[in-house]
Specification:
binds phosphoenolpyruvate, alpha/beta, single chain, Glutaredoxin, 26 helices, five-stranded mixed β-sheet, 12% strand
Length: 686
């Protein structure tokens, strides 16, 4: 059963999860770009000239990108659901405030939410966050009820892989260049043509906004070129066009030492030009100095142009030359376009005939031995450096595979494909590892006369005789039946249970039946804590604890029921509810006493309603209950405890439910009233 509220939470989970993963990944592709964007936001408090400012922004960039991706991944996989949901609400609340600030104070033109891949204005960003914030709240509200691909025991593995995967991925993009280049200076771009095209677009836009001012009778009016007035108007002047919304993509204007812009010369040169880019030489890495110097020397001998391009001052350039022996000529350019062109400092950008044919971080420069071969390749007609390969991100790949396997397993479970395997794998496992028994117990409730009850037992006895049973069979019957059916069932595999017993040992309690009387009638079990007794007869934790103690003291095995009502399940509180029910009753027992109890998880919304928990839902909460038992009584007792499922269990769903590793059988109401319906449930254990 899945409620509309939970469906809403699932939809919200997918939407927020996907947005978080996409925005995290797009930013993680370019951690340096994300750090620059964070620097723009922090500009009022963080001066980029401070030596450690880039360290701060880079650290924040790693934390933000990885955090966003992990939140999304955890939400989609359904692991650490409550924590991830809480953090995503906090994240979207924070982002909403930042986007509000950005709309009012205008510190950035583009929010940077999706790196350089998708550009949103501050208003669009605010609207996006205002949509995602309530969605993330819907996820939080029902976080516990969300489906999951991995169990509590397994979840550490995808979590570790996701963390390692994203960190390795970001580190790779930081050391080398971004895996995918979303900026205008990507390899393959013909910079000369792109700049010319941009210029003509800008000209056209300016022309379109140019106005001609005319005057008549003291009134001045602006006219477009297509709509000029008649000769009764007098021309006054041209009002130049402007386009404040247009942002130029290319700002490639390197200047030589005399202050002459030399972009034209560089872009029209049919030969090869190597540009070694660094916004500031004082902050550039000295990691590949030998390779750079070798590149320069050999470029000269092959007739290529080679320039350093920087925004550094003359002193910084001199210090770099002194430190590295650099003798290549320097061109001056603003730091911002240099950072747009390349994300590693220093980085190499190669032009041939105005086209960008290669871009490399200093860590990827050819070695001294490879330089000649590399430079020859640059000359080959049509050569463009190949894009970096995704296969290098092995861990990311491994994580992706694990995720796919998780999905496959999830759907296989949905399609019952794993049923066969589970029968083969889990049953021997259960028997080997624990003493717990498979049990099918009936609960007649207030049904059947004495004659009908005895007839049922006779019929069931006959049906079971000679059959190899794979579970224990118990019949829960009204007090009036107990003595007769217990003696009838003697010598058969059928055990008899009472449906209740008093919370007092003996005395003046008219109409009550004590545990001792139940035992004396031949019953060995007693059903306690059933939701109907809790709801209609006000049996609370204190009464139930007393009943359990008396049952145990009289040698009876309690079949103790726990489970949540519909509203609690819809609110995602079912884990909490069963925990509280156990804590308030059975958890006061000693380990030895508890070892004698059978548990029955019975979601109240499924009892007698025809609604059944899915096998995945049952397994999930049974595993949770067992986990609680492990915490309270240790692994052995938890493993030995039989936990039955109850709630509209019948012949058609029993096999799937019982195939779950933590479902050890069923407590059956309606379907235990006729042998015809009850027998196939017992046989589900075959
Ligand atoms: C019950 O009353 O314990 C029960 C599980 O009932 P039903 O099987 O009819 O839902």
């Amino acid at each position: 059963m899945i409620s509309p509220r939970l469906i809403l939470a699932e939809i919200a989970r997918v939407l927020t999860g996907v947005v978080l993963i996409v925005s995290g990944l797009l930013k993680a592709i370019d951690p340096v770009g994300s750090a620059l964007k964070i620097g723009e936001y922090l500009a009022p408090v963080l001066d980029e000239r401070w030596a450690w400012s880039s360290l701060i922004t880079l650290t924040l960039s790693f934390v933000l990108c990885a955090g966003e991706f992990l939140l999304g991944a955890f939400l989609l996989m359904g692991i650490y659901r409550r924590l991830s949901a809480r953090l995503s609400v906090a994240f979207f609340a924070g982002m909403t405030l930042i986007s509000l600030y950005s709309l009012l104070a205008d510190p950035v033109s583009d929010c940077g939410c999706f790196g350089d891949a998708i550009h949103l204005t501050p208003l669009e960003t605010l609207l996006k966050n205002l949509l995602l914030l309530p969605l993330s709240y819907l996820v939080l509200r029902d976080a516990r009820g969300l489906r999951h691909l991995y169990s509590r025991r397994e979840r550490w593995l995808p979590a570790v892989l996701a963390v390692v995967g994203i960190v390795v991925f970001m580190e790779r993009n930081y050391r080398h260049l971004p895996l995918v280049d979303f900026r205008p200076y990507r390899v393959g771009t013909n910079l000369g043509e792109a700049i010319a095209e941009e210029d003509s677009t800008l000209q056209a836009r300016l022309l379109a906004s140019t106005r001609y001012l005319y005057e008549r009778g003291g009134v001045t009016k602006a006219f477009t070129p297509e709509n000029l007035p008649d000769s009764s108007w007098h021309f006054v002047r041209v009002q130049d066009g402007e386009d404040a919304t247009y942002r130029a993509k290319y700002d490639f204007a390197p200047m030589d030492s005399l202050g002459n812009v030399c972009s034209e010369a560089l872009l029209t040169d049919p030969g090869v030009t190597l540009l070694l880019l660094a916004p500031h030489w004082s902050r550039a890495s000295e990691g590949s100095i030998d390779e750079i110097n070798e590149l320069y020397t050999q470029s000269l001998s092959m007739g290529y142009r080679f320039y350093g391009v920087t925004a550094s001052s003359a002193e910084e350039i001199a210090a770099w030359r002194y430190l590295t022996g650099a003798s290549y000529p320097m061109l001056h350019m603003d730091a911002t376009p240099i950072r747009t062109m390349i994300r590693a400092y220093p980085g190499l950008l190669v032009l041939r005939g105005g086209q960008i044919i290669d871009k490399r971080s200093y860590v990827d420069l050819p070695t001294v031995e490879e330089v000649t071969h590399y430079l020859h390749r640059l000359r080959e007609p049509g050569y463009i450096a190949p894009a970096p390969s995704l296969a290098r991100s092995y861990l990311l790949l491994a994580w992706g595979i694990l995720l796919i396997l998780g999905f496959l397993r999830f759907w296989a479970r949905k399609l019952h494909l794993t049923l066969y395997l589970k029968k083969r794998i889990h049953y021997p496992y259960k028997r080997k590892r624990s003493m717990r028994k498979n049990i099918v117990a009936g609960n007649w409730k207030m049904n059947k006369t004495l004659q009908e009850g005895t007839a049922f037992i006779s019929e069931l006895k006959t049906a079971l005789s000679g059959k190899a049973l794979h579970c224990e069979v118990i019949i829960g019957a009204p007090f009036i039946h107990l003595a007769s059916i217990a003696s009838l069932a003697e010598g058969s595999p059928i055990g008899i249970a009472a449906e209740n017993c008093a919370d007092k040992a003996e005395g003046a309690y008219t109409g009550e039946v004590s545990a001792a009387m139940v035992a004396s009638a031949g019953a060995r079990y007693v059903i306690l804590g059933h939701s109907e007794r809790r709801a209609y007869y006000g049996e609370d934790n204190a009464i139930l604890t007393e009943k359990v103690r008396l049952a145990l003291a009289n040698g009876l095995t309690p079949i103790f029921c726990i489970g949540e009502v519909k509203e609690e399940r819809e609110a995602g509180k079912h884990f909490q509810v069963v925990e509280e029910q156990l804590a308030g009753t059975l958890f006061s027992l000693s380990p030895e006493e508890f070892g004698k109890v059978i548990l029955a998880y019975e979601p109240v919304w499924a009892i007698g309603t025809g609604l059944t928990a899915t096998s995945a839902q049952a397994q999930e909460i049974h595993a949770h209950i067992r986990h609680l038992l492990v915490k309270k009584y240790g692994e052995q007792i938890a493993n030995d405890c039989s936990i039955l499922y109850g709630g509209s269990c019948n012949a058609s769903n029993a096999a799937e439910l019982f195939a779950q590793p933590d479902v050890d059988g069923g407590l059956i109401g309606g379907a235990s009233l006729s042998v015809e319906k009850f027998l196939p449930i017992i046989e589900a254990f075959h």
